[in-house]
Design a protein that fits this description.
A: alpha/beta, seven-stranded mixed β-sheet, 9 helices, 7 strands, 20% strand, B: alpha/beta, Rossmann fold, six-stranded mixed β-sheet
Chain lengths: 199, 397
């Protein structure tokens, strides 16, 4: 609905599961835009705040002040951080999208399979196996930083350096978290380099 | 000159930042979602020695307010925070705090009341505080929550009434946005040092012993309440004064209400909290279609800005009051009845209708408020009829 007013706002909707860092990634994306002087907003929609339950997050990035607090209804970009959601909540994922919506998906499926499951034969589709990257880099399926790299590459709405800065800040709270910075920066870069645009 | 920087913060982070900068003497708290995260952030500041605040972990919200009352009476600068059922559990002591005329800041991270249990946002919790003689401010976003906490500290101490700062649970508390933060020194200069003689009768002033919380027999209770009544009317001027002082450091001029495109508006929507941003976008959508509509936000909820609102509504044809809580009283939502009073005092007494929305975290979309404006116009023009003043938006029947 942002297009109904005369503002130019990029609207993004994330679909993930609790515990995979989807909310954190959405916040880091907004923060990375704010660092660069833009207006940003990331609004999580929690169900029960429990691990494993589906989580939806709205992110907006704009040169104008963002007034609305409505969830993103017609996203320009849809990001799927957990591939199993394509089977369980497909209708929610494609809700409000059209043929111009860009999809960025964490999956090891080939592109044609993703297109078939979601019913998006002609949409711009970017694929990255962010879970594999996360497992290889820090041994846990927390694909959020790899996804952020993929989003930066696929959309160009934030630059990689700003996201790096965000990761360093977000992980600076304790020494335990700080120790994870190098692996996450590596995951970010791999996400950026390994994401590919499907035919 | 105040130094400012824009950073990305959630509502809870922004509130914790204001608490850190003000450096309260006492924070007495009990955790409850969505306030828990706020106190988590603040507990880190306490643990790291970034503030001098003594954090008292109490056994419940009733005790949290009791601890605040004791500390505030002693002369300390105190804060607590809660949400939903926690506010409900606190209510008895809210009357004690205001009756004793103690400056206390309470952050209400707005949450629905049980049953059914919901941790999500509506304003039912804050509506429990309507008649407690606490000053009450609502915040649209993290920026306003941050500003309101700083201003509230000063308002409360000048007025000698406790104050509530409301911001919407999850929608504001857990969402990230760009927030302009003032430098520590500017904030500390603005609120001033926490000397016990900020208030007239601190218990710790042993040279002037006083009694707090004494009993009043029928020969004096009425006089005490009358004094409270008279002084609560003085709160308007104090709030305006502090808003004006704040404008000098923050370059933002707040008022009791915020008007958006109301000058020539025939139809006006009124809301509080985070939904006002969405309402403004809906006004823009309808203005693009040539409709003369506007919106008003209530920032100062208690004391209610009845005169200012009456003035703002004087030329409107119809008013839609958007309530994020139900009163279950056969009339309408809490805000509806306050706005109705303003309408009675306004020049042309516009048509008024009440919509209840956003209960228990129900997401609020542009289409919901578009529907409200449409229904209002049809009712006002007599195209549609009503048998009640109030109806629910977004409900599955």
């Amino acid at each position: 609905m942002a297009t109904a007013t005369d503002k130019e706002t990029i609207e993004i909707r994330w679909h993930g599961r609790g515990g995979q860092g989807t909310v954190t990634a959405a916040k880091m994306l907004a923060s990375a835009a704010i660092i660069k002087g833009k207006h940003g907003q990331a609004m999580p929609e929690f169900g029960l705040e429990r691990s494993g339950t589906p989580v939806k997050v709205s992110t907006r990035i704009s040169n104008d002040i963002i007034n609305t607090r409505a969830p993103v209804v017609n996203p320009q970009i849809v990001i799927i951080t957990d591939p199993s959601l394509m089977f369980t909540i497909k209708d929610q994922i494609i809700s409000g999208t059209d043929e111009n919506t860009v999809f960025i998906v964490n999956t090891n499926f080939p592109a044609d399979k993703v297109r078939k499951i979601l019913g998006i034969p002609n949409n711009q589709l970017w694929i990255v196996d962010a879970s594999k990257i996360a497992l290889e880099e820090f041994g846990r399926n927390i694909p959020n930083t790899a996804m952020l790299g993929a989003v930066a590459k696929a959309t160009g709405i934030v630059d990689l350096d700003a996201v790096k800065q965000e990761i360093e800040e977000a992980f600076s709270a304790s020494s335990k978290l700080r120790a994870l910075i190098p692996q996450n920066l590596k995951a970010l870069e791999r996400g950026y380099n390994e994401v590919y645009k499907a035919d | 000159m105040a130094q400012k920087k824009v950073i990305a913060l959630t509502g809870n982070q922004a509130a914790a930042e204001a608490m850190r900068q003000i450096n309260f003497d006492i924070a007495a708290v009990y955790p409850i979602s969505p306030q828990t995260e706020l106190m988590g952030f603040f507990a880190e500041y306490v643990a790291n020695g970034e503030v001098d605040t003594e954090m008292i972990a109490v056994d419940g919200e009733h005790s949290a307010m009791a601890a605040c009352i004791g500390a505030a009476a002693a002369g300390a600068r105190v804060i607590t925070a809660s949400a939903g059922p926690g506010i409900a559990y606190m209510v008895e002591n809210l009357y004690v705090a205001s009756g004793m005329r103690l400056p206390i800041v309470l952050l209400d991270v707005n949450r629905a009341l049980s049953a059914p249990l919901s941790i999500h946002c509506d304003h039912a919790d804050s509506m429990l505080t309507r008649d407690t003689s606490w000053i009450s401010l609502f915040s649209e976003n993290a920026q306003e929550a941050y500003h309101n906490i700083i201003m509230a500290t000063k308002i409360s101490e000048k007025a000698l009434f406790p104050i509530i700062v409301n911001y919407d649970g999850y929608i504001v508390s857990h969402s990230i946005e760009d927030v302009e933060i003032l430098d520590d020194e500017t904030v500390r200069n603005f609120v001033g040092p926490s000397d016990i003689h900020r208030i007239p009768y601190p218990l710790l002033d042993v040279k002037k012993p006083v009694t707090y919380g004494a009993t009043a027999q029928p020969d004096y209770y009425t006089e005490c309440k009358y004094q409270q009544h008279v002084d609560f009317l003085k709160v308007y001027d104090i709030v305006r004064e502090v808003f004006n002082e704040f404008a000098e450091i923050a370059d933002v001029k707040y008022d009791f209400i915020e008007e958006y495109k109301t000058e020539d508006a025939e139809y006006i929507g009124i809301s509080m909290g985070s939904s006002f941003g969405t309402l403004k976008d809906v006004v823009d959508i309808l203005r693009n279609q040539g409709k003369k509509v506007g919106a008003i936000k209530i920032r100062l909820f208690r004391p209610f800005p009845v005169k200012e609102l009456a003035e703002a509504l004087s030329n409107a044809k119809g008013v839609a009051v958007l309530d994020r809580a139900d009163s279950f009283d056969g009339i309408g939502g809490p805000l509806f009845k306050d706005v109705s009073t303003a309408v009675m005092m306004s020049q042309n007494r516009p048509f008024i209708h009440n919509f209840i929305y956003g209960l228990g975290g129900r997401e609020v979309k542009e289409e919901d408020f578009l529907k409200a404006f449409d229904r209002l116009e049809r009712l006002e023009k007599g195209i549609e009829t009503r048998d009640r003043f109030v109806e629910y938006l977004q409900v599955r029947e």
